[in-house]
């Protein structure tokens, strides 16, 4: 167990553990620290006189470099999504036909979307009317009567 007393080997073990955590819980974040730990371990093997404190400083520096390179990489080569609107609930609502639950007069009212109600703005529409969502301003939906859209 004498090999466990070498901090550089502990960094390499830490790198493997971080890589396994990244594989088990994908979040594309632990991989940067795994790379930093691996580099710290390699530098520690090449320069054992660096000591543990120096290796900690090296790990911090390598972590910063790895995160910055990773951030740049994902900016330049974004991961394509099969559902780009997955986390944009309002954008997913555009085009839906919904029912007015509180009359829309003077540009204010409420509509039922699924099992909830949302504030809405648009041309006057009585309760019970069917309208189509055309956009959003903040959390207020912009709607138009179905008949108004068919004349465009």
TrEMBL record:
| Cellular component, GO, one term | plasma membrane
Q: Where does it localize?
A: Membrane
The way it spans or sits in the membrane comes to: Multi-pass membrane protein
Matching InterPro entries: Membrane_assoc_protease, NA-bd_OB-fold, NfeD-like_C
Q: Which UniProt keywords apply?
A: Membrane, Transmembrane, Transmembrane helix
What sequence ranges are listed for the domain NfeD-like C-terminal?
Answer: 92-145
State which residue ranges cross the membrane.
Answer: 9-38, 50-69
Per its record, how is this protein called by name? NfeD-like C-terminal domain-containing protein
Q: Which organism is it from?
A: Sphingomonas pokkalii
């Amino acid at each position: 167990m004498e090999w466990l007393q070498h901090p550089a080997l502990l960094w390499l073990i830490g790198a493997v553990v971080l890589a396994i955590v990244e594989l088990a819980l994908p979040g594309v974040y632990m991989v940067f620290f795994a790379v930093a730990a691996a580099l710290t371990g390699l530098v520690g093997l090449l320069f054992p006189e660096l000591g543990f404190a120096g290796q900690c400083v090296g790990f911090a520096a390598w972590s910063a470099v790895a995160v910055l390179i990773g951030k740049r990489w994902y900016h330049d080569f974004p991961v394509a999504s099969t559902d780009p609107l997955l986390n944009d609930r309002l954008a997913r609502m555009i085009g839906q036909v919904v029912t007015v639950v509180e009359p829309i007069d003077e540009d204010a009212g409420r509509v039922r979307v699924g099992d909830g109600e949302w504030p809405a703005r648009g041309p006057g529409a009585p309760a019970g009317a069917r309208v189509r969502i055309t956009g959003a301003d903040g959390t207020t939906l912009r709607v138009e009567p179905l008949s108004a859209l068919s004349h465009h």
